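Task 17 of the worksheet. Students: predict the tertiary structure of the chain below and write it out as structure tokens. Keep your answer in the requested format; marks are given for formatting as well as content.
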Amino acid sequence: MSIASPETPAAMIPALPHGSRSSLPALLALILLVIAATPQLICMPVTNDVSYYDIQARTVLNGGIMYRDMVEPNFPGVVWIHMGVRSLFGWSTGALRCFDLVLFSFNVILLARFVSAARFQLSFVLVLTYYSVSEWCHVQRDVWLLIPAVTGLSLRYAQLQRMKNATASSKSIYFHALLEGLVWGAGVWLKPHLVIPALAVWICGLLLLSTRRQTLKDLAGLITGGLIVGLLGIGWLISTKTWPWFLEMQLEWNREYLAAGNSLWNKTLIINLLARLFPYWLVHLVAIPMAVRSLFKKYPDPARPEIMRLRLLATLYLAWCLQVVLLQHPYDYIHLPPLLLGIAFLTLRVHCSDRISLGYKVLAGGFVILALVLSPVTKPAHLRLWADCIRQGSTNEIRNQLAQIPYPDWQDLERVGDFLKQQQAGNYEVTCYSNDLVHLYRDLNLEPSTRYVYLNTHATYFPSKGPLIKQALQKSPQRFVLTNLMSAGLLVNQAREIGPAGINSHPPAFPKQLQTQYPWNLPIAFRSGTLVVHRVPAKAAAKKSSAKPVPLIQPQEPE
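Model answer:
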């Protein structure tokens, strides 16, 4: 099967006219989807990671030091973005979601431009995918990372075309490589895992060239661009006195973090991941073997622009899949970007073929129909919220109706916040044991009791730091500890059940062995649904905390 190109006779390229005939319906469907589902997308809740990055951004903006004041295993790029967005547009979740939607739109434009053929069809499927997945995939740096990745891919393709031209000057080669290096380097500050796809794309481009002319100039420019961005970031870390804390986290703490992450690849989490991302993960079943075949297939003219684009995109897609499986966690937002790249690759591969078989048409049509049927955006209940989202915005009641992840219950969270206000809880007096309660730190403008904001997760992922965490809890002036009963392994209906002892007690299904362990052994001052506020007895808190190490409970993943 050959790839169509401008040099191919007209009789050999029926695919592109075929794609163009369906462009208008695809464009109309895209416009309808955006109009019908965008208000609901903006009003969806955000996950605890988003609030945690907000809290870190607030800390730095108020003069704090990142990594020192809050434990953070990741590179600072995402916090920089939150600092910029919050400084410019305020602290509402709607503002951040609008910003996220703009970035995702850039992703769609970049991918559609690179694929070129069937751009409206591709755009529709990409937007449908993003609008359909859970809030765990939104406002996440992994999706943002596609912008420097696809931009770098496009610049690499343009550079290869430039290097094929014998008249291109060394200065031009170096300058454009430097520009590309700046883009890739900026992405690394978001997530260093991007190094693997970037290296793979460069090697692929090297193999696609018929001559190695000016390769050293190209490599020198790439490295220079990456170093410039790296030095700028290090300069910020040094100027804000963050550098030693950043080094400590990366060189010491993250060894345990990476080791703990490998243990997350278990049967239960993988099954849950596949269930939440169905039917989109079906793309991999076709895209992975087709991408491998595209890299190794012998084409009559491998230097054609279409073939070069196809192979570069296949390389980016496969390398991204590889680093996700080898280096990262089985979380939805991590696995969404390779799915988007797989969809883009299949679009380019099929619509640039010299023929589109009936089987491909049936598979593609069936996939889109299945995605539409299963998507929440096509459900009547979701569509009925359109007017409420326009009039009311992102209220807690609307969030509960739009949320695809069952916790926290946003109205219960509001009641917990009201209780803490009544108790006049101040800075450093509240500890969120369960991750999904950290939204209250931002919403109530409270400082966490310790730097271990993700208390349970930090204790689990950094077991050697248990004494430090225990000591920090002992010294903190905490008055309340917040938990979600579901993090103890209960189902929603079990966690909401009220036993004979009343609402301020554990539900009947609560594990007996946990009732004597921190923080579940603390008296319950308030309970709303699955959310619990424990009161820390004055002076007794330190004794209880010092009696034995904080017991660890593996955080439950969304069902």
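Marker's comment: The beta strands are 430-432, 480-484, 524-528, 531-535. The chain is about 60% helix and 5% strand.
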